[in-house]
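Researcher: Here's a chain I'd like modeled. Treat it as a single chain, no partners, no ligands.
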Amino acid sequence: MCAPDKNSAYAVANIDRWAMAALKTIASRANPQWQRLRKLAHTSAAYRKQGEVWIDGEHLCAAYVQRGGVPLCAVIDEAAWELPPLRALAGRAKTVLVVAPALMATLSTLESPPRIGFAIRWPGPGELRTGRASVVLDRLQDAGNVGAILRSAAAFGFGQVVALEGTAALWSPKVVRAGMGAHFGLNLVEGVKADALAGLGVALLATSPHASTPIDRAELPWPCAWVIGHEGQGIGADVLAHCAQSLAIPQPGGEESLNAAAAAAVCLYESVRQRSRAGQGRAGAGRDTAPQ
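Model: Modeled as a single isolated chain. Structure tokens:
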């Protein structure tokens, strides 16, 4: 999608070595290449057809490069191009498009549009990996929730996120922005059917306000897979049938006010807390029985 325009007259001189053969400008919104980029940036599932994902902002772009990613295309506004750090970041891409700030703004829905963005290769729908600590998303709809859950998964060592059919697109621009770089360190699997969950090879855990056992009083297995259900409907019966336990999150305030992302963070943290406590116990036992 971001191949260089052979007819571009933009002078290539005295620029970073990464962009030597692939620098161009686009001045018109009607440019076909620009139209494809706009669709990628504004349509949640466009990445599945185009095979590319749009990410924007210095933080996300830098996070992608730090993970070893090579952008297919960088888009940067004219003012940012004059800043050496941003020029170097853009130069990591195979193609660099330098555009006017007003044109750059059309790629974003934010009040303060980012100065740089990347089109990167979509890694595909992903494949389930057995025996991994995972998070399963059952038809979650809110992009902010999904992105926040990805951040929690990355923070607490749950390296795989599985999105069941009906869940918001994991690589949509809004989810990627909310994920703040978590995408690049996780195994993400989309479009999974409930019947495939047995392939995870770990115990599935659910939460319910009606469960009798609080999560902090249950012995949580490791690795495990926490299931986070639809914001309004909760976990579907077909998914719940695969769960080994259904547990409650204590809410002493008396209101069931946790949203999906907050509930997920609590569950993942509790797994890590118990695992850490168990590790400390084993270490303490070893010290107690060591020869004096």
